[in-house]
Amino acid sequence: MLKFEENMIKDEDIEMLHSVVSFRGVPMAKMNVENWEPVEYFQARHDDVVLATYPKAGTTWVSEILDMIYNGGDLEKCQRDTIYNRVPYMEIRIPGMPSGVDQLELLASPRLIKTHLPIQLMPESFWEKKCKVIYVARNAKDVAVSYFFFHQMVKALPDPGPWDKFLADYMNGTVSYGSWYDHVKGWWEKRKQYGILYLFYEDLKEDPKREIKKILHYLEKELSDEVLEKIVHHTSFQVMSKNDMANYKTIPNDILNQTNTAFMRKGEAGDWKNHFTVAQNEAFDNQYQEQMLGTSLHFRTAI
């Protein structure tokens, strides 16, 4: 179990926390890839459920949805602990704390597992055990904005600098977890060989009940319409942003500084329009057309 305390990160750990290194061709947080073996050889269980996303694509939102589904919509059970303990982040490593793998090994089945790994870095045991895997993708422009604000909050991430610098880094694929294009396309292609449920953030915003039904069908779960409505309400942005078991307010400001910007900031589709200049948008669109040429993957940048 992760339990954060004030001033728990030592000064000597800060440089490592800020470091992003190239790992097998993917920029990754140095702290996450040191001692990679436990992740690479992670032993999946047949009833594990994996939630994979590029960062800032609705991970916490869908984590809460999954936990509610597996607890039959019981709100009290979903208040038993913070979301990062109920749905551990597999590849996370923080000095002096249990790793994501350590957390998961102690959990009873069925386990809900969160990861941001690109497809090529996923442990093979998930495919061997034929686990249920859900991937959630969000349009590239909104991810860029959300990831920028996230970098400003998280001590373990490098200083993003001004927006124009961060956007350039993001477009170059040099931010942690690498290219958004490679990530979403890699998982999209994998679904052809493996039974992955590929969902879109914008669809979830447009009609959460419809998309949660897709998740239920995929997981072979049945819930009453009353419970389904409860899940829709409980996992709405308005409710989750006030839920301390979901909004990361339990993490001290010296680790996740929410003084100026909340972890659950807006939860909108189309907020990129408030941040991209006309020139930035044109350059982004040109790159997008080149990078997405030949794929059947399509995104909406507003709903």
TrEMBL record:
Its keywords, alphabetically, are:
Cytoplasm, Transferase
Reported EC number(s) for this entry are: 2.8.2.-
Read off the SUPFAM superfamilies from this record.
Answer: P-loop containing nucleoside triphosphate hydrolases
- Domain Sulfotransferase span(s) in chain numbering: 47-295
| InterPro entries found in the cross-reference section | P-loop_NTPase (IPR027417), Sulfotransferase_dom (IPR000863)
Q: Name one GO molecular function term.
A: aryl sulfotransferase activity
Its GO CC terms are: cytoplasm
Q: Which GO terms describe its biological process?
A: sulfation
Q: Which domain of life is it from?
A: Eukaryota
Major location category of this protein? cytoplasm
Compartments in which it is found: Cytoplasm
By sequence similarity, the record places it as follows:
Belongs to the sulfotransferase 1 family.
The name of this protein is Sulfotransferase
Which species does this protein come from?
Xenopus laevis
What are the top taxonomic ranks of the organism?
A: Eukaryota, Metazoa, Chordata, Craniata, Vertebrata
> Encoded by which gene?
MGC85017
